[in-house]
Amino acid sequence: MSLARCLGSRVRKSFRYAYGSCSFSHSDWIKLIIAAACLPLRNDSTKSYELGKIGYITVNTYNSIVDEQDQVFFKMDRNDLNYEIVDYLVERIYFYVGFGRKAFETLSLITRVSWDLGLDGDDASDFMEDFFEHFGVDPGDYDHYRYFKPEGTDIFVFFRSKDRRAKTAMTLGMLYKAAQTKAWDCEALDNINFSTLPLYNRTDEIPIEGFSINTR
């Protein structure tokens, strides 16, 4: 059975379990299927009741929810950020590793400088040294191996503790926040939920030539 059929069947059964027979339009069932996709598929009467209830709520509030969710692709208000910091970070990372052709379509505060942009090794070391100096950031408990792999083959990786094997992602948001606060605090930075909105909305906002934004 396809996923769509499975979800559709489950929603109908769950709703009837919770509320009995009720006349729903085809579009309403589609809305219920969307609600079902957000919940685990379990053969549990309690969960079925909850699914039916949530589906009922979803149908009655669907339009308002959609209106709100449409704003997921909102534009970043340039007044929300200090773009002197943002542009500097972007330009320096580009200097070391370059960017893909469509990088600025999705570049955001949650973009990972190593895992997404490819900054590692000696380039990462030079970048961070420049970062701390340029913004006057106190390194605090910063540990390079926490975020970045060394140059070449890391033959000593298993001799370092697990938290020093480049398993923690450093994001542009973490760099931005540290530049603002002038301090690097691993725990504080690791636990901030940064915006997923693209940093740049128009081609003329991009601080580097040769790139464009076509999706907004």
UniProtKB/TrEMBL annotation:
Family annotation (InterPro entries): DUF1493 (IPR010862)
Protein name: DUF1493 family protein
Organism: Pseudomonas coronafaciens pv. garcae
Short name of any one Pfam family annotated for the protein: DUF1493
